[in-house]
Amino acid sequence: MKDTNSKRAREKAMVSEMIALYCHAHHHTKGALCDECAKLERYTHQQSDRCPFMEEKTFCSNCPVHCYRPAEREAIRRVMRYAAPRMLYIHPTAAIRHVVSTLREKRRLRKKTK
């Protein structure tokens, strides 16, 4: 359970960082998020808290169930498209961990389907 809680906290922190990066660049905020981005951040945290697959999933993009509403899913995609490449400069360890985890998950899924 502790591992799941730390994983959930790490995921929330990383999504918050990415939303802040996006908000600063696109909405010209400094420090605080704009209302739209703050609402998206709250939504992502709520979905993370409710996620029944947290123990076995790597990232939401690899999850068999997409629990985000369509508007929020598109909003987080925009954020991720912008922020993900820039995370290598801001949080290199987390960015590399994400790439390695994604590759492992893809490999695991290929083995599972064979």
Whole-number mean pLDDT: 88
| Mass-distribution shape | globular
The SSE order reads: HHHH
Strand content: under 5%
Number of extended strands: 0
Rounded radius of gyration (Å): 15 Å
Portion of residues in helices? over 70%
Low-confidence stretches: none
Report the end-to-end length measured between terminal Cα atoms.
31 Å
- Main beta sheet: strand number and arrangement? none
Name the structural class: mainly alpha
Individual helix count: 4
Task: Explain this structure.
It is a single chain. The protein has four helices and no strands. The chain is 75% helix and 0% strand. The protein is mainly alpha-helical and 114 residues long. It has helices spanning 2-27, 35-50, 70-90, 92-113. The radius of gyration is 15 Å and the shape is globular. The model has no long low-confidence stretch (mean pLDDT 88).
List the helices and strands and how they pair.
Layout: H1 2-27, H2 35-50, H3 70-90, H4 92-113
Helix pairs in contact: 1-2, 1-3, 3-4
Attribute tags:
114 residues; mainly alpha; globular
Compact summary:
By secondary structure, the chain is mainly alpha-helical. It has helices at residues 2-27, 35-50, 70-90, 92-113.
